[in-house]
Specification:
Elements (H helix, E strand, L loop, with lengths): L7 H5 L1 H32 L2 H28 L2 H24 L5 H29 L5 H28 L4 H21 L15 H13 L2 H16 L6 H9 L3 H20 L10 H21 L3 H29 L5 H29 L2 H22 L1 H5 L2 H9 L1
Helix pairs in contact: 2-3, 2-5, 2-6, 2-7, 3-5, 3-8, 3-14, 4-5, 4-7, 5-14, 6-7, 6-11, 6-13, 9-12, 9-13, 9-14, 9-15, 11-13, 12-13, 12-15, 13-17, 14-15
Length: 416
């Protein structure tokens, strides 16, 4: 059994290779903006709640646009849709760059731009994911999803560390983060622009958008394994993702240095990157449902240790362990979703997947910030980690079909 990640999709499919490379470079730029917005809001307000409200600005358009966006993904040429969305996100990044260079300290403007960016991303991200099954064979799909997760981990690893250095540099600062992100969209446009046309298949654009959304949600509800994967992911992101607490914990324990703050998210990325690079055995795991529940539990336990740690090395180690577990969660969830979703529902299910993954994280960020303000950041992070572990146990007991879902069942589903 190979230990390292399977790179065969990059060799066999030039369109997938271009999409993967362009998305990776652009995603690193996006991480710079995420870091910069969080730090800029905290610098202006010094409030964990204000940082948590970034999650609300992201979540509202994500929820309102995301589910309806899935029907557009199923009804139009996915390549054209991704190109249009990418151009819109480029314009938002340019606006963030302009406000930073002008020295504006308008938190409402940051919330507004983040909300617009989230609304566009709620269509763009699942549309990009829906492209992948059309570019790869069934046998390469799991490896392709692992490579996509490798992109996420490269982003988490390189983005915040680079952002911390840029933010601390006297001639760059937060404006430099936004500017580099704006330039990075050239890679995303290149990666998508040379893809073949991908027109709608098996979906009637004449039906009501709400009816189409309801049909997609109903399909998920009829598939207990698919529903279990989504619920397990929501449990992890809602309770066990206390990113809104990072600036406050960094200020209280490590002096508030932006370079140290960057290391928090970088540590998660390093753990996930190592796990993604060594993902070969993961593509052959026999008990997929149980593997996801175990990885969710490790994720929560990692944040619980992070909450009580007073030393920087243990803090970073705990975050790295959580990041390693996250790679397992994402790859297994993506494998299950790809196997159980027919082509005519792919856009809508991918949209639900994105809404749950991103929306749960933003809700979790708000929840962590609110609990941290009422109690303390450490108590908030610790309780969230423990609740994540407890939630995984409850999900496993309540959904035995998900807990028992195996590699053999997965392969049978792919063949169908």
């Amino acid at each position: 059994m190979k230990l390292l990640a399977d790179l065969s999709p990059l060799r066999s499919s030039p369109p997938f290779r271009r999409l993967w490379a362009g998305s990776t470079l652009s995603a690193v730029g996006g991480a710079l903006t995420s870091f910069a917005v969080t730090l800029q809001v905290y610098d202006i307000t010094r409030s964990p709640v204000a940082v948590g409200l970034i999650g609300v600005a992201i979540m509202v358009p994500l929820l309102t646009v995301g589910l309806l966006g899935g029907t557009f993904i199923d009804a139009v040429d996915k390549r054209v849709l991704v190109l249009v969305c990418t151009c819109g996100q480029l314009a938002v990044s340019a606006a963030l760059t302009a406000q930073a260079y002008l020295g504006l300290r308008w938190v409402w403007l940051l919330y507004l731009l983040v909300a617009i960016q989230s609304g566009i991303g709620a269509v763009n991200a699942p549309a990009r994911r829906a492209l992948i099954p059309a570019l790869l064979s069934a046998g390469e799909l799991a490896a392709g999803l692992a490579l996509q997760q490798l992109t996420n981990q490269i982003t988490i690893t390189a983005g915040p560390a680079l952002a911390g250095l840029i933010a601390a540099a006297p001639h760059l600062g937060l404006a430099g983060c936004y500017l580099i992100d704006t330039a990075s969209f050239a890679a995303a446009l290149y990666g998508t622009g040379r893809l073949p046309a991908m027109r709608a298949s098996g979906f009637s654009s004449q039906r009501s958008r709400l009816a189409a959304v309801a049909a997609g949600i109903s399909f998920i509800g009829r598939a207990p394994v698919l529903a279990g994967a989504f619920i397990a992911d929501l449990n992890a992101t809602f309770f066990g993702l206390p990113t809104s607490l990072f600036p406050a914990i960094n200020a209280a324990r490590f002096g508030g240095d932006p370079r140290t703050l960057g290391l928090f998210t970088t540590a998660i990325g390093v753990g996930g990157l190592v796990s993604a690079v060594l993902s070969g055995p993961l593509t052959h795991a026999s008990r997929l449902g149980l593997a996801m529940l175990a990885s969710v539990s490790v994720w929560g336990a990692g944040f619980a240790v992070f909450a009580v740690s007073r030393s920087l090395w243990l803090t970073l180690l705990a975050l790295a362990v959580a990041g390693a577990a996250d790679t397992v969660t994402v790859v297994v969830r993506g494998t299950i979703v790809a196997a159980l979703t027919p082509a005519e529902f792919r856009g809508r299910v991918m949209a639900v997947d994105y809404v749950i993954g991103a929306g749960g994280g933003q809700l979790g960020s708000l929840e962590a910030g609110a609990v941290g303000s009422l109690t303390s950041p450490a108590i908030s992070a610790f309780s969230g980690g423990l609740l994540t572990v407890l939630g995984a146990v409850v999900i496993g007991a309540a959904l035995p079909a998900f807990r028992r879902y195996s590699r053999a069942e997965h392969l049978a589903d792919v063949e169908r």
